[in-house]
Every structure is written in C-alpha cells, then in structure tokens.
C-alpha cells in the first residue's frame, strides 16, 4: 500500500516540499527543521539534494554570521558579499571565506584578489563608513554583526561617477532551551550620486521572533524608510550616514514597542473583547434572559 | 509522526495550511492522525436553507459533506449521513442558540457552530467553534487590523451522569493572527496557536450547556491573556534583547 501511495508524489515534488520546509524555518532553527524533514522524507539522497539547494538560500536570506578561522572575526553570509555559491567576501579583513552551507560553518579562508576588492577611491568611503557602523552596532546591538559592501561602481577611480554601498546589520538571539529565538536584519542601500552631490538612503528593516513553549507564536515585522543627505568627505559621510541609520532604527524600535503596548486593550479587542460590554461574565444559567434575548436577537436579526 | 508535529511547531503559523497539505502528501498513511492532531484555520459554508453560515470541521463532516447545525442537513446532500440522536439534537440546537449570543457578546461578530454526537461510553462529545475575522474589511469594529483572524475549537467530552455529577474534559485550541499596517511603521504581524486542557467534575443541576459554557468562557479568557501577555510578551522581550531601547543604550559608557 505504501508503494502505491508514494508513487503519487514524484521525487521532484517531494524535494520541493522538503525545500519549502527548510526555507521557511524561523531564524536559527533550520538544523532542527532539517532533522524532522530528513526523518519524514526517509530518503537520504533526496534530502541531500533538497538541502544543498535550500541551505544557501536560507543562509543568505537570514544573513547568518560565521566565525572565520584564526579568530580574525566574523563573516556575514549575504548575497552582497557572494562571489561564488560558497565563497563570501569580508571586506574588513580583505579575506574570502569558504563556507559549508549545510553545516553552517566557515571551512577555510583565502586572501581576496585585487579585482574582488573596491577601488581605493571607493574603499576610502567604504572603510570610514564601516568604522562608524561598527561603533554604532557595538553600542546598539548586544550581539550584532555588520558589514559594508560595494554593490555598484566598485571600480570607480575618482569623483565623476556614481557608486552604491550597502550596510548590512544582522543580529540573532538564539535560545532554544528557553524555546525562544529571534533575529533583526537591516539592509541599508546608499546611492552616492556624484552629479547631484547627494546621498540617497533606503533602509529595509526586518524583525522576527519565535516562542514555542507549548504553543507556536511568531512575530514578523517589516519596515522600509528613506532619507537623503549631502555628499561629503568619506569621514563626514560616514558619520552622517551612521547617525541617520541610528535615528531611523531607534524610531522603528519605539514604534514596535508602541504596537505591542496597544495590543491588550486596543488591537486585540477587534478580535475578542476581554469581557462583554456588560462587564460581567456571560449569564449561562439565566435561561429566562436567554428567551428574552433570543427573541430580541431574532427581531433585530443579530443572530446572523 | 513526531517529526511531523515538530515541524508544525516551527513553521510560521500563517503557513499552517500549506504545511499541513505538504505533510499529508508526504505521509499519506498518517493522514487521519495528522488531521486530528493538527489544527487548521476554520472554513465556513453557507446553509442555503436558512441563509446562515456554519463552520466546517472534522466533527460535522461525513465523506465530503458537512452538516449544518441550523438545518441539520448535509451540504452537499448526503445519503445515510451520520446524525445525532433526537435528544442530543435538541441539546445541540439550544447550545447553538446560546453560544451564538455568547459569541456576539465577546466577539461582536463572527460565526459560531456547535456539534454534538454520542460516544461509546454513554456520554457525548460536543464541539464548540468560533471564527472571527477582525480585519477592517471584515468585522473589526475599530479598524485597527489590516488582517486579523481568531479561530477557536473547543471539544468537550462529557461522561455519563453519576449521582447528579458528570465529568467534563475540555480541550481548547486557539489560532490567531493579526497584522497592523500603518504606513509609518511598516507591517507588524503576530500569529500563533496554543492548545490547553481542562478537566472538571460538575453537578448537572444547571444543565450541561451551562457547565460547558462556563468552562469554555474561562478557558477562552485564560488563552487570550496567555497569548497576549506570555506569548506575545516573549516575542516583545526578544525584540528588546536584540536591540535594547535607547534609554538603556545611553547608560553605556561612551566609547
């Protein structure tokens, strides 16, 4: 009987399902999910195929942070720093990390080649910004990791051309023993516009949390913001950008807090009140009241 | 099966339906177990005979048809469908009427249904269901929610009456999701599901409906508070752990 039913689902379909589960794992939980998926799939080869396709996507989307050998720091796994599927650039140390996606570890290092790095002109801006962001993240996030990449115009030699930098901040708090995990991801795109002599910033903030002690509750919050400022020297740009980012992110946190504060009495009420309007419990025993109310509801058509 | 339940605890609650159908197709020989153990958001159908909606679940299903608690007919029509006894049906009708008023008092809208059937132990089982769409396009009175859904499933097993007392075992599941979206602060989405049990021995002097009703009311309030304070509270704590509010940061020494 098992054979007939399993024949209804092709290997390809099973693989897609396995990938879906892996990709939709909450932050920090893919290893647990993968164990369950492996058990259900009961086909090691198929699972490995699914994993090899799903893990890289998950790791980049979650912007996981891996320790580089030699204690030189951490590397962020993001699409911005991806040179090859398993090679990720860390500009702060000018190293390329070789990564095993499924095990989620950094297995090796090699120095970055010159043509993988931005030009000295762009690097000046990138490096100053990196230093300022590092300071900001160190103060604002207990366990945050950040990186600055050049996403456009990395070979620009001097003034006269536009280039883009991207600031990535990733913080994860994993506490599986307390049944709670969470992650904060910020991606700030900064366009350095030479002709207009302005900088345009676009930020995308995403926060997630999962609590699953005898239940399953998840938070998924997203926000986008914009700002502009003048094109200045690398150091001044860096200070201004960092302060703009700090301002917006702090404001966002405050609005998240406000959303939470509104929950019990306001937002939740649209789903279910704490008590009826009468401010007393429902009178189950009072059948007379029911007969009256029942007639009333019929007349007023409320019962629908 | 354990692995399947593990997955259901981790996958975001808003993907419950997709996850369940994925699991059903991967584990077809576990389908009845999966369907009874995994709760899905409730669906609603309109009873064409009286123009009222009723909620669909495993407890009023026979083959591919569902029995309406209002007209007691199967939709689509079914030959030899299962029906509660005449006595139990009378109780079921009363329960539906009373529960509809309870539902209106607390939910200010939404749909409810009660289904009862005899069990093997000379007692019976009753299932009380509520579905509320609290979004501003649905029945959210105050317009706070872009999207909001509350689904409650309460199953009460009632034991046979002995010396004027009966044993009630209530298993309740609440699934909820809410999204606020106010442009300025992006989208804020919370969703989750929890399940709890409650056992009581009660005198049948005031009747079964009264007893079951009180248990359900108490349970719903507990679940609402728990979801709000404990569960959502923990996610709030997590956000503050990831990035403590500005006041905390200012106290740190200047680098």
Describe this structure in words.
The complex is a heterodimer of chains A (304) and B (255). Chain A is an alpha+beta fold. Chain A has 7 helices and 11 strands. In chain A, the strands form 3 sheets. A 5-stranded antiparallel β-sheet of chain A has the order 7-8-9-10-11. In chain A, strands 3-4-5-6 form a 4-stranded antiparallel β-sheet, with no helix packed on it. In chain A, helix 2 packs parallel to helix 4 (44-62), helix 3 packs antiparallel against helix 4 (44-62) and helix 5 runs parallel beside helix 6. The longest helix of chain B is centred in the C-terminal third of the chain and has 35 residues, at 208-242. Chain B is globular and about 65 Å long. Residues 249-255 of chain B have low confidence and may be disordered. At the A-B interface, helix 1, helix 2, helix 3, helix 5 and strand 8 of A face helix 1, helix 2, helix 4, strand 8 and strand 9 of B. Chain B: Belongs to the F-actin-capping protein beta subunit family.
Biggest sheet of chain A, strands in spatial order? 7-8-9-10-11
Helix content of chain A: 25-40%
Poorly predicted tracts of residues of chain B: 249-255
Q: What is the typical, i.e. mean, pLDDT of chain A?
A: 88
Would you list the SSEs of chain B in sequence order as H and E?
HHHEEEEEHEEEEEHH
Largest sheet of chain A: 5 strands, antiparallel
Categorize the overall geometry of chain B. Answer: globular
**Which class of secondary structure composition applies to the elements of chain B?**
alpha+beta
Pfam family, one (chain B): F_actin_cap_B
GO molecular function (chain B): actin filament binding
Subcellular location (chain B): Cytoplasm, Cytoskeleton
InterPro entries (chain B): CAPZB, F-actin_capping_bsu_CS
């Amino acid at each position: 009987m098992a054979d007939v039913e399993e024949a209804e689902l092709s290997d390809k379909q099973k693989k897609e399902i396995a990938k879906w589960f892996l990709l939709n794992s909450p932050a920090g939980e893919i290893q647990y999910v993968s164990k369950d998926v492996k058990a259900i799939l009961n086909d090691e080869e198929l699972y490995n195929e699914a994993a090899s396709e799903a893990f890289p996507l998950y790791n980049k989307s979650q912007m996981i942070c891996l320790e580089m050998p030699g204690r030189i720091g951490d590397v962020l796994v993001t699409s911005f720093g991806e040179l090859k599927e398993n090679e990720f650039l860390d500009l702060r140390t000018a190293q390329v990390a070789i990564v095993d996606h499924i095990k989620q570890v950094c297995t090796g290092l090699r120095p970055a080649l010159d043509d993988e790095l931005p030009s000295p002109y762009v690097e000046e801006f990138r490096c100053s910004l990196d230093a300022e962001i590092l300071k900001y993240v160190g103060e604002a996030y207990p366990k945050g990791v950040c990186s600055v990449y050049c996403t456009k115009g990395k070979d620009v030699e001097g003034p006269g051309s536009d280039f883009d930098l991207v600031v990535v901040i990733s913080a994860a708090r994993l506490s599986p023993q307390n049944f709670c995990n969470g992650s904060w991801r910020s991606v700030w795109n900064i366009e350095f516009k030479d002709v207009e002599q302005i900088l345009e910033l676009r930020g995308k903030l995403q926060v997630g949390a999962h609590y699953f002690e005898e239940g399953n509750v998840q938070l998924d919050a997203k926000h986008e913001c914009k700002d502009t400022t003048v094109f200045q020297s690398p150091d001044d740009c860096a200070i201004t950008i960092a302060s703009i980012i700090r301002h917006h992110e702090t404001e966002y946190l405050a609005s998240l807090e406000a959303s939470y504060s509104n929950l019990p009495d306001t937002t939740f009420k649209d789903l279910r009140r704490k008590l009826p309007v009468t401010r007393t419990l429902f009178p189950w025993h009072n059948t007379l009241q029911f007969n009256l109310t029942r007639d009333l509801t019929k007349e007023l058509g409320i019962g629908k | 099966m354990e692995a399947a339940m593990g997955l259901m605890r981790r996958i975001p609650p808003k993907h419950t339906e997709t996850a369940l159908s994925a699991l059903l197709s991967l584990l077809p020989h576990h389908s009845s177990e999966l369907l009874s153990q995994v709760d899905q958001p409730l669906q609603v159908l309109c009873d064409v005979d009286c123009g009222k909606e009723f909620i669909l679940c495993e407890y009023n299903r026979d083959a591919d048809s569902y029995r309406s608690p209002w007209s007691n007919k199967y939709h689509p029509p079914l030959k030899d469908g299962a029906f509660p006894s005449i006595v139990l049906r009378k109780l079921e009708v009363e329960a539906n009427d009373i529960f509809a008023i309870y539902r209106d008092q607390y939910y200010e809208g939404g749909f409810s249904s009660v289904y009862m059937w005899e069990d093997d132990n000379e007692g019976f089982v009753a299932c009380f269901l509520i579905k509320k769409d609290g979004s501003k396009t649905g029945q959210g009175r105050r317009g706070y929610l872009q999207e909001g859904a509350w689904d409650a499933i309460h199953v009460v097993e009632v034991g046979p009456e002995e010396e004027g007392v009966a044993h009630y075992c209530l298993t309740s599941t609440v699934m909820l999701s809410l999204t606020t979206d106010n442009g300025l602060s992006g989208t804020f989405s919370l969703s989750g599901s929890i399940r709890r049990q409650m056992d009581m021995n009660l005198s049948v002097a005031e009747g079964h409906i009264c007893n079951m009703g009180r248990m359900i009311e108490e349970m719903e309030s507990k679940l609402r508070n728990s979801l709000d304070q404990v569960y959502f509270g923990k996610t709030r704590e997590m956000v503050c752990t990831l990035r403590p509010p500005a006041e905390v940061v200012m106290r740190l020494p200047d680098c």
